[in-house]
Write a structure and sequence with these properties.
By secondary structure, the protein is mainly alpha-helical. The chain contains 13 helices and 2 strands; from the N terminus they run H-H-H-H-H-H-H-E-E-H-H-H-H-H-H.
Amino acid sequence: MDWLRQLPIGQYVAGGGWLRQLDPRLKFLWSLAFLLTPVLAGPGWRLALVVLLLALTFCSGIALRVWQRSLPALLALSLAVGLLAAFLPSGQEKPLPLQRPPVEQKLPAPPAWVLFQAGPLRITKRSAELGLNTASLLFTVMHSANLLLVSTPPEELAWGISALLRPLERLGVPVQKLGFQLLLALRFVPLVQEELQNLTRGLATRALNLRQLGWKQLLGLVLALGERLLANVLLRAEQGAEALLARSDLWRSPAALRVPRKPLIWLDGMGLLALLLLLALRMRFGSL
């Protein structure tokens, strides 16, 4: 089974849907918003971003087979990391001592800091916030980037980033060459996944019983696979470099490689207004 087609992480998948028709520059700005707005934000804003990402995924028009395997796996990973962070000790959380008893000051009693405890396992208010922030940030970062790469061709993405960085050309920054290098890097990601799949298939054809291997032999097997993967990836990189040198160091800008399309002004306008609304809500309700 070709599991790369069943779990397309970080690869463009052709198809329909309004998200694929959105301007790549606007999609890149939306990804930056998902990456930057959680900084110094409260738990409510982080959870709102997770819900917004899930809503965008369900309503994006992307085929179900694209995210039906990767999305539950990412949710499970984020939940596991969040629970681990919640159960880890988070330091002293004792409130400051009062000068007089709460009854004399007519203040309510201090809240209980321990939310859950089962033997040595304990979740406090601070550790719960840490676990929630960790899980939401992991999901937001990974899924927003994956949604961008799945819905945007590499040529479109490289062109969009080059267009946003074009003002830096006045400072002598080689924006077009950087865009071409980004395009090569995006094209190189499926090659790495293909090499990993080939190694996994080669290991499966040998019918190794991993349960019978000791931890030393299992560690040696993992290191051997990692060494072979690195060697194959470096070989692919060397072949790509030789191909470029054979063409006399000829490179083309992302704008020349991009397939022109008819822009949807109404869709890009709605996306820009929604982005501005998101930033306004972050400034109003997202702070700690």
